Model the fold of this input.
Amino acid sequence: MIGGLFIYNHKGEVLISRVYRDDIGRNAVDAFRVNVIHARQQVRSPVTNIARTSFFHVKRSNIWLAAVTKQNVNAAMVFEFLYKMCDVMTAYFGKISEENIKNNFVLIYELLDEILDFGYPQNSETGALKTFITQQGIKGQVKTKEEQSQITSQVTGQIGWRREGIKYRRNELFLDVLESVNLLMSPQGQVLSAHVSGRVVMKSYLSGMPECKFGMNDKIVIDKQGKGGASDDPGKSDLGGGSGKQSIAIDDCTFHQCVRLSKFDSERSISFIPPDGEYELMRYRTTKDIILPFRVIPLVREVGRTKLEVKVVIKSNFKPSLLAQKIEVRIPTPLNTSGVQVICMKGKAKYKASENAIVWKIKRMAGMKESQISAEIELLPTNDKKKWARPPISMNFEVPFAPSGLKVRYLKVFESKLNYSDHDVIKWVRYIGRSGIYETRC
Amino acid sequence: MPAVSKGDGMRGLAVFISDIRNCKSKEAEIKRINKELANIRSKFKGDKALDGYSKKKYVCKLLFIFLLGHDIDFGHMEAVNLLSSNKYTEKQIGYLFISVLVNSNSELIRLINNAIKNDLSSRNPTFMCLALHCIANVGSREMAEAFASEIPRILVAGDTMDSVKQSAALCLLRLYKTSPDLVLMGEWTSRVVHLLNDQHMGVVTAAISLITCLSQKNPDEFKTCVSLAVSRLSRIVSSASTDLQDYTYYFVPAPWLSCKLLRLLQCYPPPEDGAVKGRLVECLETILNKAQEPPKSKKVQHSNAKNAILFEAISLIIHYDSEPNLLVRACNQLGQFLQHRETNLRYLALESMCTLASSEFSHEAVKTHIETVINALKTERDVSVRQRAADLLYAMCDRSNAKQIVAEMLSYLETADYSIREEMVLKVAILAEKYAIDYSWYVDTILNLIRIAGDYVSEEVWYRVIQIVINRDDVQGYAAKTVFEALQAPACHENMVKVGGYILGEFGNLIAGDPRSSPLVQFNLLHSKFHLCSVPTRALLLSAYIKFINLFPETKATIQEVLRCDSQIRNSDVELQQRAVEYLKLSSIASTDVLATVLEEMPPFPERESSILAKLKKKKGPGAVSVTELEDSKREGGELNGGGDRGPDTAAMAASNTSTPSPSADLLGIRSAAPVGAAPSSAGSLLVDVFSEAGPTAPSAAVNDDGFLRDLEQPTETSDSLLVEGSGDLDSAPPSEDPAPPLSEADELLNKFVCKNNGVLFENQLLQIGIKSEYRQNLGRMYLFYGNKTSVQFASFTTTVSCPGELQSQLNVQTKPVEPLVEGGAQIQQVLNIECLSDFSEAPLLNIKFRYGGALQNLTLKLPVTINKFFQPTEMSSHDFFQRWKQLSQPQQEAQKIFKANHSMDTEVLKAKLLGLGTALLDNVDPNPENYVCAGVIQTKSQQVGCLLRLEPNAQAQMYRLTLRCSKDSVSRRLCELLAQQF
Done:
């Protein structure tokens, strides 16, 4: 159970302090500041134990959020709550910054009262919260009794995430598959570790209380159907850029609370009544048969003690018709670099002294192409005999397909009470693959 | 930042620093620093040479980055280049960088030293000062090696500027402190002393720090400084406050210099020259007079400076301890401070008075302030001042005011701070013992002490009460009565129960006549406390009960009942159970005569230093309790206990017989009271050891009452010495002749240690050397304990271990150097690591040199390292033994000797000796059971030598035949020689 929640700015000044339980004293605020924010050595662990009190913190830009407890809580729950808290705040007033927090502190206290009760997390669904915690003045907020009872029944009812009586002229659905691909590769091109963590984010503007069903190329489902011989709706067209494989193996997944888990467990079908607006339907992780969008081939040569020659080739490895964007390659330089000359064929490259790295940026790059950069690094002889540790070359990019190979097969909407059918709903599907930690040793 | 003139200000640096300060987060700061570092690297890398200004700027930036906590691994070269610049600011930054960031990098150090050398030989005073400051700031050994000879030259050169002289003196002081061995005394020393006459006060102030430090090490060479210092002091003291202009601080002329002069004088005894002495006394009087004058300023700095000089003067007076007039005046002056508003002054006054109290001239004067001090103890708010007040009360206590002071301390104890309670308790206990005329008063006081602060009364305190009560017949009855009354309180401290149990057990009969304290009442009273006590106390009470049975046969039934009950006889604690069972049997089987013998009254304890005093000394560290006090207590203690004449060696002698203390335990009696934890094991093995040397007379004495013995034996060694004395003569009569013993005696000493590993190696009037050693295979470790038996410190104490002749290749002895100073009454320890490379016959030599009161003492001893120490016992059957015996049948392998017995031919003693030799004693091997057969392997690094031994005693002729067969002939001969001395 969370005993209290504090928000600090980068200097360690307390912006928001809310204590839920008696076992957390006022000195806990200072303890965290002294031992974590102002700690002489940077604190890397997100959980810190100070005098039998646990502090769980997350950092958003310059803002620290810390949940405090004296009890043995489920740490994953606390972090889930903190992330949710960040989401809610973002949904209410945009970017989490010192200024925004100061301007909205009444709202934040109101939210904290609602989403945590005596330290137990409550409904933190933005859509639901927005119905009764608004940013309007008190005057404009006068609601009819009917409205109030409706809110009450919704918040306390079975489907707390959606209110009744929503109406749209155009029933629309946006579905984004967002993936981040993580890689560690040896200089020889051997994959040391790779995994994709993905999210399915939906934005739904549907009338009434629709029942939705979501299907994708999950290996288990496909195999089952293959045996049954019955072929379902083929769903959306194939947008994937990779190989022609039909199904993927999902290692683990988690769902939004609206998904009926019993049905998923028994039939492995994902059916749900969606919340209104934007939400994250599911999260998943895959480790097998990942399509690596880029291959980095490094070549580092030390010429004497004062010179280093670096050549890096990147190869794009997807359909030529697709375009990767926002490509950035970061080549670390030794700590005693005194000068750098860079030549690259495509994009722009620059030595950034403040980050001890050469940063090479390419705006766009089509599939099945390759590009290269070469750099001459001059070194200053130092007293230190320590050898340069050669940190890995890292890379950032964005590609319009899912590196895991996930494909959306269908998304069906049923609304029995209102007079629109699955075909009347306009559906949009988008795939975005981004780089997570995408590194190649050199 | 350095003071920079306009136009020389480093704008880039200022911008950089303000950038860093404006950084919002740590990451931003690191980014900014990385950028700056890259910029500096590219600048330093650049092919075109940088001008001095930018070099200085970048080096400065690097320094700043380093001070922020980042590693700097370049720029050293540029900094060194700056050193050769001609501009002050550039040079200064260069030196700053070097002194902060220098590491003993060989190539750079040479360049740096070169630059420093150039600056030192330049005629520019500022450059010389910079170089000197750098040397002092770095102060490393390398620096000392390079410049230790140069600096004295600068210091005494006639044409050196004053400011440079100042720096040189302080620089030399610093080098001397870090590596005294490199700063060699030479002809310059006498000229340094004459710096005291320098015109420039700054030079004098700097020089005096150096002289003070040097004269502490070599007082003789700097003797001449005394008269110079006195004349300087008198000039300052007598000068008007305006004379010294720059050196007058809030109307006080040169206070720092005065303090330092006074402190320098404290290194020396009072000057012998009458004129000088007269002048000094005059100075001190003037200082004391000045303290009486009304202050010239209300500022606190003025009074601080004045008081600093005054306190320094008073400590000089105390140090001289020869001018009664001055001592009394100082005491009166301090008396005024006792009631001063300023807490610090009160503290200092109390502290100085403590030392004054120990002087015979001012003791009476101090005593007049008793009321004020007692008041301070009661009302003072600051705990440290209260502590000092308690110390002072302790110091000023004597026979005349003991009762008052002890009463005050006792009453204060009830409210005293917890941190000082234990010390207070010890002090009360000591004072009560030391100044007791009336023993009933003593007993009352201590019992009161236990009542008030039972938790803080350490074991030593109540042991001492019992020792005194047992040794004094006249107080026993009173003690029994008082204890009995004290025990009647519904809740009394466990220590009280212990004292009660012991005293009633011994002397309960003295009060048994009174029906209110009849034997049964006494027993019931004691037993009512039994169940609330800890195990050791219960054990003591059980012993008291069995004594009751002896004292009062009428209580026998009741006590047997108690002993027989399940909670005693089946107690889960082994000790209690054993006592219950044994006492029960003893009481039911033995006749009254036997009981009376076994449970006889405890014999008086031998005289010894008060264990409490030792404890207090240990608490405060050696030297805290003054020597006079120690001697005082010996004198008083002797009187108190009527123990007659007590030679100073008794305690040490008793201790010299304790053969197996743990390494941490003191070997010397001078600081007795071994730690409790170490005692039980040593006590156990001690019995064995004593038996093995003293023969079979000891055991019967030991049976006497081992329960009682054990109770007292643990921390105080009382019973050890009891046993030892009971068992009659013992080997080591301390040789007390010339401190340079001939080697023949050393041989004798060596023989003592053939069969044992621990004990006293050597002792004379000055020094006692104890040994504890242990051996494993071919390795050994020896602890040498050097005890200073005098009250004067030994100076330049050195020990060397040498291996003469071919022993060098046979034995490897490593020593660690010992402290050069051994305080009076203190003991130091030295560890030797010994490795046996091959078999040897000689013993290594231990040479000890030290100065005792100026005279050099020099003695050489043989270290008791003999070949048999490296024995590894080997068990074997009779068959094996004879098979091997036959294998070693070559004539040179055997050594045989027939000799007359030197000691008694007791079986147990012989066995113990043979085991002490390190071999395995084999039973049932020799057909004649009278004979002894041993086997062992001598482990050396190069080889192992198997040895078989056969000893055939002939009781009628008092002769032995010793036969040795070893796989190496030299070993058999040597062993035979060694062993022949032992039986």
